Amino acid sequence: MKRTIFLTICSLFISLFSFGQTSTEQFETESHGSASFTDNGVIFNIISHVGIFDIQGNYPGTGWNGTGNDNRYIDNSNDTASPPSFSIKTTSNLFKVNRFWIYLSALNLDLAVAGTLTVTGKLSGVTKFTQTKTTGFTTSTASSNGYTLIDLTNLNGQNYSNIIIDQLQITLGGNYRYAGLDAFTWVKDSGIVLSTNETVSSKKAMSIYPNPTNGPISITTEDNNARAELYSQDGKLLKGLEMKKGTNEADLSELPNGVYILKTSSGSSKIIKK
């Protein structure tokens, strides 16, 4: 079967997995009614799929910043469209999600109704993970102002906090018709934010051809005794490649269709290409 594989080259001097900057957006400085917010220099769009979601700032003390009540958050106030669904998405950075707090209820804010929450992470429109939580929701405002902690380091027994995405989608099910999301804690993945063919510095060049590939690739480098490492998008090392100066041949036919990261040691160069 014909395979399509897309590679990204980057320097070992630019860590794809360790330069993350953790930040928590509490929405307190955002404008009421806004369909976007900015945190740690990154602009996120609030995309409404079913219902209308935006920044809520009209009801002080009804949010939850992780330790106490606060004034602003994302919600779908009084919107009857069902099942409610929205995304937090950015096109300027890739990111990972650690956790967030969410109020889930009927439209009258009754927390005692039964429902589900589906959390989906996507990258370039491709689903990287999805999980549906069915139990363990807060049922009283006496605890965390009615908000439930969604911890992606242990969501249904799985850790999704290390998966790089550009879109987090939230979908309600069952009798849940209202959602208020606050204290969005995420990690800025600063290692792969450059646009296609953008260069950080390039004293020595490295290139791959063809890209995308069906398996065979040619890697050209100006370095002697260079090494390349192939990673999946979730950071798993798949194979190492020893290279010499000039053109080196490799075959990736054993890999399934997808996007992979070729992480290279290239002397003083720091190049990122998609």
UniProtKB/TrEMBL annotation:
Signal peptide feature range: 1-20
Q: What highest taxon heads this organism's lineage?
A: Bacteria
InterPro entries per UniProt: Secre_tail
Tell me which residues make up the Secretion system C-terminal sorting domain.
208-274
The protein's matches in Pfam families, at most eight in alphabetical order, are given as: Por_Secre_tail (PF18962)
Which keywords are on file for this protein?
Signal
Name the record gives this protein: Secretion system C-terminal sorting domain-containing protein
The species is Chryseobacterium shigense
